[in-house]
């Protein structure tokens, strides 16, 4: 994995929230969000894996090499690709956020 570039950020919070919340807690909330998003996209990918009995790459090859174009397959291919990209993106964000906990 490529090394993450970290940027310091300043946020404004209500005084009572700022006094009771640490930066570690904020990072933990962001970690939870990233993990939840990654798990959501992975679960949607798994639905397609179960439906088509294989992974995305295999299904993509099958759809591209089909003699007759099946529009429902192409629709699913586009949606599945979006879920794959979403999963990869949120997994990357999660991994990068874990660096901030060190």
Describe the protein.
- The structure is a single chain.
- By secondary structure, the chain is mostly helical.
- It has one domain (23-100).
- The protein is 75% helix and 0% strand.
- The chain is elongated and about 65 Å long.
Count of DSSP E strands?
Answer: 0
Helix content: over 70%
* Average predicted local confidence, pLDDT: 94
Q: Work out the strand percent.
A: under 5%
Task: Supply the number of helical segments.
Answer: 4
The secondary structure category is mainly alpha
How many structural domains are formed by the residues? Answer: 1
- Envelope shape: elongated
Return Rg in Å. 19 Å
The residue ranges in which pLDDT falls below 50 over 5 or more consecutive positions are none
Sheet of most strands:
none
Distance between the termini: 17 Å
Order of helices and strands: HHHH
Top keywords for this entry?
mainly alpha, 75% helix, 4 helices
Please outline the helices and strands.
Blueprint: H1 15-20, H2 23-52, H3 56-65, H4 71-100
Task: Give a quick precis of the structure.
The chain is an all-alpha fold and 102 residues long. It contains four helices and no strands. The protein has one domain.
């Amino acid at each position: 994995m490529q090394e993450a570039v970290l940027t310091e950020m300043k946020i404004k919070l209500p005084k009572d929230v700022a006094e009771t919340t640490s930066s570690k807690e904020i990072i933990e909330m962001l970690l939870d969000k990233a993990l939840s998003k990654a798990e959501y996209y992975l679960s949607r990918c798994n639905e397609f894996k179960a439906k088509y009995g294989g992974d995305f790459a295999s299904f993509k090859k099958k759809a591209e090499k089909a003699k007759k174009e099946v529009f429902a397959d192409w629709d699913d291919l586009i949606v599945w690709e979006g879920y794959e990209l979403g999963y990869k993106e949120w997994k990357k964000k999660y991994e990068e956020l874990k660096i901030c906990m060190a």
